[in-house]
């Protein structure tokens, strides 16, 4: 069905017939104002304390707000996880912790997300649709429209902010991908860091993903380096580290203030790329995926039916035409791809294990009975961003640079280690999303939006191991928690009038498996992909295939819509668009009405183009000269953009007798970046082209002692992506070296590493020095000048 003529009608319906369909929102209005106005003093003030009566302040705990026996809350949110990935929902990867939560409570089979990371996370915390909270896409691709700026508005307070006002101790561990790119530096502002979103403590990373062995760690607002080992002395891994911190925080909180319930938000970086995990976990899965993705889907589908998470009459959707059949692949490719899946399975199992340690600790504390646990297996479907051939380095995908098969074959033994930023092929992501069509990014189909979830709360949920199939969305988590605690979202927070909650509480499902759905209407949109659910029907329009960088040219207002009766077609296998055009036309009108209501417009299907920094505020725009002090760290969103631009880097140093090695400036690291440093008395410029090529320029002369000016001049061939460049090195204005960067990084240098002055954090840009490679002389600062 084509849609260009339906838009005006849809917008009219927004003002006319649709309000009667919006039954999923509460019709009652809150009168609560938070923080509460100060109460008048109820004691007595005399001339001295002897003729006065004091009033002792009350502790900020739920009991003093009339809330008895408030539950602790734990949210476990797994990253980039498909419906058919976890064993609890039929996947081949055993996940005993998710099993435990489901067996101790409820398993939800029709729970939905937004199809992308930060939009889902914003919707979860705020209880409003992702466009309503300006998170229609990841912040790194934000634009200057209300639904897409990446700035969660003050009119959409998080449920964590509300809980904090009632005495909860809130702590967040893992991924915060809700900070606008330009606000991630040491100068903030910090409104959308964890503290601004309602949390007392944060330990994790700020961004889309991070190296699991060398994470871009932040504690509260301070960037720190990870310890060398986990608390038990084992080799460091990020998921283990955040579990260690979560356990310590819960125990400390209950030891110091047992009256205060805790809310722990455990948002892992796993199973998002890079797929990095201790080798001992990988060994457990050796040979288990040699049959390939087609067989995986068939076997998983059978298990899903046996478990009852998929109806008996459901159909397994076919493989997309652009994905290869496993049996059609050459043996060497199958060998690589099977190994990539072994690593991913280990990553999944390890993550579930670490979540289990947290629940074990809650039980050991005697708090499990009154802890409300949400284990959400994915902020979207599994990720196909590894492309058709999988990746040793995710940065090659974001920069459209191919990786030779020979590199992958040579890396089989080290895959999953800190030597790689790896990601499996798109067809494995499709398999992880069994039984549905498509993957992450595709909001029009359940492969991108349907995620397994389990809820337990022994004190309140008496059902054990039961299935719930009511249609729900991630915006329903916040009102569920508020109802469970016994509070409501305020009408005003911090002096700002609040948008209504757009989710609906799921508590009505706790005791009644047959309860009628209370969510009857829900739109979906991501990167131009469009979907609308209403009363058991779903209309879907796919715009772009996720394993390709950009969609084919097309008309967002003239999309080929599909129609599914999902009450009878669980997997979206039977397109009824031709048989029932009237129903499809009705749903498409609903979509555009919802789009108008929730800031979805203007529709936008651009991918790479929206990553352009010119679309967003910038700390560096219009500046030509940047002088940075020693030991500064800056994320890419706050650093000058040097990609395919001529520039000069100058460092004024004092070199002691005997020389001084060390980093002067670097951005990125092992998986992409550049560095200017001193090694063995020589000035060195290294350019790492996403691990595919390395260009090194070294001075022909030794750097003298005393005050010295060191300089690198980068002269690009053209101001366009991939352009090569001449690089010249100077010591006190004398040219001492020259070389070429044959091809440059076009889009993004790094997803998590920083620009560092005077040392190197994260991973090295070249393998010839030892971290943190702090400059051993005196560095007064580094100046970058753009030509």
UniProtKB/TrEMBL annotation:
Record-listed E.C. numbers: 3.1.6.1
Molecular function per GO: arylsulfatase activity
Q: What class of enzyme is it?
A: hydrolase
Instruction: Cite the InterPro entries for this sequence.
Output: Alkaline_phosphatase_core_sf, Sulfatase, Sulfatase_N
- What's in the keyword line of the UniProt record? Hydrolase, Signal
Q: Which residues form the signal peptide?
A: 1-23
The record places domain Sulfatase N-terminal at 71-487
Name the SUPFAM superfamilies for this protein: Alkaline phosphatase-like (SSF53649)
Classification via CDD domains: PAS_like
Record keyword Protein transport present: no
Classification via PANTHER family: ARYLSULFATASE FAMILY MEMBER (PTHR42693), BLL2667 PROTEIN (PTHR42693:SF43)
Q: Which family does it belong to?
A: Belongs to the sulfatase family.
Descriptive protein name = Arylsulfatase
């Amino acid at each position: 069905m084509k849609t260009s003529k339906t838009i005006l009608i849809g917008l009219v319906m927004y003002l006319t017939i649709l309000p009667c369909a919006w039954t999923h929102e509460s019709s009652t209005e809150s009168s609560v104002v938070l923080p509460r106005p100060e109460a008048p003093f109820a004691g007595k003030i005399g001339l001295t304390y002897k003729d006065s009566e004091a009033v002792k302040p009350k502790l900020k705990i739920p009991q003093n707000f009339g809330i008895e026996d408030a539950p602790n809350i734990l949210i476990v949110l797994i990253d980039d996880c498909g419906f058919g990935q976890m064993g609890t929902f039929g996947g081949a990867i055993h996940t005993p912790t998710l099993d435990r939560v489901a067996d101790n409570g409820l398993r939800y089979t029709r729970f939905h997300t937004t199809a992308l990371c930060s939009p889902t996370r914003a919707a979860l915390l705020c209880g409003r649709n992702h466009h309503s909270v300006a998170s229609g896409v990841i912040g790194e691709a934000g634009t200057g429209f209300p639904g897409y700026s990446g700035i969660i508005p003050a009119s959409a307070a998080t449920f964590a902010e509300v809980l904090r006002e009632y005495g909860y101790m809130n702590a967040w561990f893992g991924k915060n991908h809700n900070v606008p790119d330009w606000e991630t530096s040491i100068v903030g502002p910090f409104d959308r860091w964890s503290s601004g979103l309602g949390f007392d403590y944060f330990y994790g990373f700020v961004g889309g993903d991070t190296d699991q062995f060398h994470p871009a760690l932040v504690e509260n607002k301070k960037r720190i380096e990870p310890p060398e080992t986990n608390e038990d002395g084992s080799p460091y891994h990020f998921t283990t580290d955040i579990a260690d911190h979560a356990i310590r925080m819960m125990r400390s909180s209950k030891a110091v203030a047992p009256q205060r319930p805790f809310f722990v938000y455990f948002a892992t970086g796993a199973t998002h790329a890079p797929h990095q995990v201790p080798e001992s976990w990988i060994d457990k899965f050796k040979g288990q995926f040699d049959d390939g993705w087609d067989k995986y889907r068939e076997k998983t589908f059978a298990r899903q039916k046996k478990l009852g998470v998929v109806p008996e009459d459901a159909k397994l959707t076919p493989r997309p035409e652009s994905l290869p059949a496993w049996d059609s692949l050459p043996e060497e490719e199958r060998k690589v791809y099977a190994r990539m899946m072994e690593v991913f399975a280990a990553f999944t199992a390890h993550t579930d294990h670490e979540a289990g340690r947290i629940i074990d600790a809650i039980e050991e504390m005697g708090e499990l009975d009154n802890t409300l646990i949400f284990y959400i297996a994915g902020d979207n479907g599994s990720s196909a961003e590894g492309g058709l051939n999988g990746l040793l380095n995710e940065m090659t995908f974001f920069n459209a640079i191919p990786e030779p098969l020979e590199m992958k074959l040579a890396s089989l033994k080290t895959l999953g280690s800190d030597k790689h930023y790896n990601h499996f092929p798109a067809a494995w992501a499709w398999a992880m999303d069994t039984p549905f069509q498509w993957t992450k990014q595709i909001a029009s189909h359940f492969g991108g939006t349907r995620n397994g979830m389990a809820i337990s709360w022994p004190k309140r949920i008496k059902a054990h191991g039961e299935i719930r199939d009511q249609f729900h969305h991630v915006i329903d988590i916040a009102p569920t928690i508020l109802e469970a605690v016994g509070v409501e979202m305020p009408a005003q927070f911090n002096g700002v009038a609040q948008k209504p909650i757009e989710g609906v509480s799921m508590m009505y499902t706790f005791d009644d498996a047959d309860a009628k759905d209370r969510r009857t209407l829900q739109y979906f949109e991501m990167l131009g992909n469009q979907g609308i659910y209403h009363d058991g029907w779903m209309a879907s329009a796919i715009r772009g295939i996720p394993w390709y960088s950009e969609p084919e040219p097309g008309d967002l207002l003239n999309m080929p819509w599909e129609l599914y009766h999902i009450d009878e077609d669980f997997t979206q296998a039977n397109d009824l668009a031709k048989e029932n055009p009237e129903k499809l036309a009705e749903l498409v009108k609903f979509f555009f009405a919802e789009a108008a209501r929730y800031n979805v417009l203007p529709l936008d299907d651009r991918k790479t183009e929206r990553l352009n920094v010119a679309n967003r505020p910038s700390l560096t725009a219009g500046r030509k000269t940047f002088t940075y002090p020693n030991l500064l760290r800056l994320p890419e969103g706050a650093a000058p953009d040097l990609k395919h631009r001529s520039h000069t880097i100058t460092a004024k140093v004092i070199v002691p007798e005997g020389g001084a090695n060390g980093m002067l400036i670097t951005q990125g690291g092992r998986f992409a970046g550049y560095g200017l440093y001193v090694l063995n008395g020589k000035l060195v410029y290294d350019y790492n082209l996403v691990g595919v090529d390395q260009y090194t320029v070294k001075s022909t002369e030794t750097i003298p002692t005393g005050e010295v000016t060191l300089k690198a001049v980068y002269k690009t061939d053209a101001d366009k992506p991939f352009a090569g460049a001449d690089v010249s090195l100077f010591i006190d204005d004398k040219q001492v070296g020259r070389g070429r960067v044959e091809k440059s990084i076009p889009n993004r240098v790094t997803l998590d590493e920083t620009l560092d002055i005077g040392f190197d954090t994260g991973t090295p840009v070249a393998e010839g020095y030892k971290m943190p490679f702090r400059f051993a002389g005196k560095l007064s600062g580094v100046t970058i000048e753009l030509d």
